[in-house]
Amino acid sequence: MPVQWIELHRGVGAGSIAVLASMSDEDALAALDALQGALQSYPDELRRGIVPAMRAARKTGYAVSDGLVLPNVRGVGVAIRDPRGVAIGSLGVASITDRASDQRIAELAAMLLREQARIEHTLRDKTPGRAKSVAAATRRPSPERGATAAER
Questions:
Q1: What is the pLDDT of residues 103-136, one digit of tens each?
Q2: Is 2 exposed, middle or buried (0-12, 13-18, 19+ CB in 10 A)?
Q3: Of the candidates 108, 115, 82, the residue with the CA atom closest to the CA atom of residue 94
Q4: C-alpha to C-alpha distance for 27 and 5, rounded to whole angstroms
Q5: Cys staple from 92: which of 15, 38, 62, 96, with CB 3.0 to 4.6 Å?
Q6: Whole-angstrom distance, CA of residue 63 vs CA of residue 60
Q7: Where residue 141 falls among pLDDT bands split at 50, 70, 90?
Q8: How far apart, in whole angstroms, are the C-alpha atoms of residue 67 and residue 79?
Q9: CATH for 9-140, among 3.90.700.10, 3.20.20.70, 3.40.630.30, 3.30.450.40?
Q10: How far is Cα 111 from Cα 117, in angstroms, rounded to an integer?
Q11: In angstroms, what is the C-alpha Rg of the chain?
Q12: What is the pLDDT of residues 36-90, one digit of tens each?
């Protein structure tokens, strides 16, 4: 299976959407505003789909990119947070739409969420001063607002 590195700064893939979903609305919208130049190369429909996908990711715990990066491609992603609760990257899987039914997306999301938990646990265990930061790392953003600055 080929692996592709997609830059997070573009904000359109499932991993990027997951990272945006880990932020407060204010911070995520500011990040998208700063990326307007890079996002201009994408169709209007795609750009309009980013914020709804970000807000949906807050409810489910994972992001879905349904044709946002390429037509006929679906992706699912989760943010990886450091011990302070700040997103430092993401994990994701993309597939052609024919092989990415809603059921398959849910299965992949469950696998990604398990790996997310393992990675974040390892980061907490390997980080100096972990006792002070464990509580912050285990907090998740509420579906309505994302993480606050105090939670990151």
A1: 999 999 999 999 999 999 999 998 776 544 444 5
A2: exposed
A3: 108
A4: 24
A5: 15
A6: 8
A7: low
A8: 19
A9: 3.30.450.40
A10: 10
A11: 15
A12: 888 888 778 778 888 999 999 999 999 999 877 778 889 999 999 999 999 999 9
Structure confidence at residue 1 as a pLDDT band (50, 70, 90) = very low
Q: Indicate the Cα dihedral angle 73, 74, 80, 85, nearest 10°.
A: 130
- For the chain, give every domain's residue range: 9-140
Q: What is the DSSP string of 28-74?
A: HHHHHHHTHHHHTTS-HHHHHHHHHHHHHHHHHSSEEEESSSSTTEE
Q: Is the dihedral of CA 55, 115, 104, 42 positive or negative?
A: positive
User: What gap in Å lies between CA 104 and CA 86, rounded to an integer?
Assistant: 28
Tokens 């994701």 correspond to what residue?
92
Q: Which helix (H) or strand (E) holds 140?
A: none
Residue at 39: amino acid letter = L
Beta carbons within 10 angstroms of residue 13's beta carbon = 24
Contact assessment for residue 47 and residue 36, using Cβ atoms and an 8 Å cutoff: no
